[in-house]
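Please check both lines for our workbook:

___
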Amino acid sequence: MDIKTLSEQYAAYSQRERLEAVFRDFERVLITSSFGTTSAILLHMLAKIKPEHPVYFIDTGYLFRGTHMYKDQLARMWNLNVVSIHPKRNEHDFTRVDYTWMYEPDSCCFVNKVMPLDKLKAEHDVWISGMTGGTTDHRKSLNVFKASNDILRFQPLIDMSPEEANWYRVIHELPEHPLEAAGYGSVGCVQCTQKGEGRAGRWVGFNKTECGLHTYSG
């Protein structure tokens, strides 16, 4: 089945039905989570459908303490099978000494986010992303499925607007990321995250709105 047909088929489902369907239709399914401000939506659905499935958390070495606390909170609350992965120590240390994020944030993302996931991607057929839609032009252009160079991308929440995402969190009483109350609409690495509504606080001063996981994947 081609990507267009697959996207049209899944677009007719609810977001939760899409997640149920992907486990039915594919055998080797990869799930990652940043445990950011909207991550709880996908993880809440997963906890209802397949809580034992591994959720890979990329610990870049630059994350807020609040993000680690949030990860532990959600994993404990929903009995999630969270597996942390890390960049290679020498490559990460180079970005730390070089302050790579200050002049080339894409390269820093590549070393600390993209490369640690390469081996896992090679072992799976489809990769689930918890991205919600409507926050950037890039996200507005995406479909439920996206063809990539090395793996099929699946974005079950991509047509969920920020308002719908907020309603989901309210209705299901999902806990907030600890930094939301402090004014962080989106949370990534410490050096590349400031306070701001939506994604306005990410990579301020650069022509960049998405982390390397979403831009290096074809």
